[in-house]
Amino acid sequence: MVDLRTHWLGLALPSPVVVASSPIGDDLDALVSLERAGAGAVVLRSLFEEQLIDEQMAAHRFIDGQVDTDAESRSMMPESGMFTMGPDAYLVQIRRAKSALGIPVIGSLNGTSPGGWTELAGALEASGADAIELNLYDLATSLTEDGHDVEARQLEVVRGVCAAVRVPVSVKLTPFYASLPSFAKKLRGVGATGVVLFNRFYQPDIDLDALDVVRHVRLSTHQELPLRLHGLALLSGRVDLELAASGGVHSGDDAVKCVLCGAAVVQLASAILERGPDAMRSIVAGMTERFDTMGYERVDHARGVLALDKAPDPHAWERLQYVRTLQGWRPRRGGKWK
Ligand SMILES: Cc1cc2nc3c(=O)[nH]c(=O)nc-3n(C[C@H](O)[C@H](O)[C@H](O)COP(=O)(O)O)c2cc1C
């Protein structure tokens, strides 16, 4: 039977299937069940920059009453009741998860501006986090901050977090970079050990009756997987970073595809939120079965065998596939287009 043991961020994992950052990490019983079902590690929910800055400002207001913000900027701050867990409770949760589990526990920070909040990574480490996942969920809205500026700002955030800890740091990215490989290479340069591909973009809808924006989290389907497979294949073997897939993994075969494209680990949120520990069990079992059929003895041997580093000119190869795909399209029999 294939050996699923692997390494992620230098940590030894019993399997490459990881619980993604989400509310699942709040529930210790669920985490224990997921470990028994085959999880290789767990990432706790995020602590947000906005939450940490708000706490710091509240402390300043309390101490000298001098720090204040105008009404407009206050209306842009999240209400303090919005967050499930403050920083202190979060550190307690890391300690509790560490003592309840044998698998690595990864803390998550989430923010996009350089500043003192990144030092909190050190407190996560001191509470026992085996690694830090830094989520750079960032959508450019400025007319004056160009792509280079956005990347420089994000790299400062990563540098700040990496400087605050000795444990490894992985960076969770959105798919929207002019050059993902070049940005990934720069992430390595400022100290990151891994990247997680990708954040899901929580696209709002419009309520036409209320004439308002509707925001809700829709769980993923495996239709979101190809974007991740492409990102993995683009980076695997070409940058000195470990790769994780996040988004759209719902079956053992989905997980196998991620590994073939270069993932060291796959992360699950939606599948667990929908089906509980059974999702973990069936994905681990499905992976095992598929790798056995393919004849792999170790999951590590399959990593990256379908990655783009095998192509002598990845850019030309991408163009060729694009042209082939469009030119190869034929109407389905009976399909209507006129
Ligand atoms: C309810 C919910 C809460 C989430 N909270 C976080 C979070 O706090 N930090 C984070 O980095 N990702 C968060 N995510 C994103 C997941 O970690 C994951 O990247 C995303 O759901 C895609 O994976 P999936 O297709 O397996 O759901 C959350 C997802 C869901 C569904």
CATH superfamily: Aldolase class I
Query: What does the radius of gyration come to?
Result: 21 Å
User: What order do the helices and strands follow?
Assistant: EEEHEHHHEHEHEHEEEHEHEHHHH
Number of domain units? 1
Produce the secondary structure layout.
Elements: E1 6-8, E2 11-13, E3 17-19, H1 28-36, E4 41-48, H2 49-64, H3 71-75, H4 87-100, E5 105-110, H5 120-126, E6 131-135, H6 147-164, E7 169-173, H7 180-189, E8 194-197, E9 205-207, E10 212-214, H8 225-235, E11 242-246, H9 252-260, E12 265-268, H10 270-275, H11 277-294, H12 299-302, H13 314-327
Parallel strand pairs: 3-4, 3-12, 4-5, 5-6, 6-7, 7-8, 8-11, 11-12
Antiparallel strand pairs: 1-2, 9-10
The structure holds flavin mononucleotide.
Briefly summarize what is shown.
This protein has 338 residues and is an alpha/beta fold.
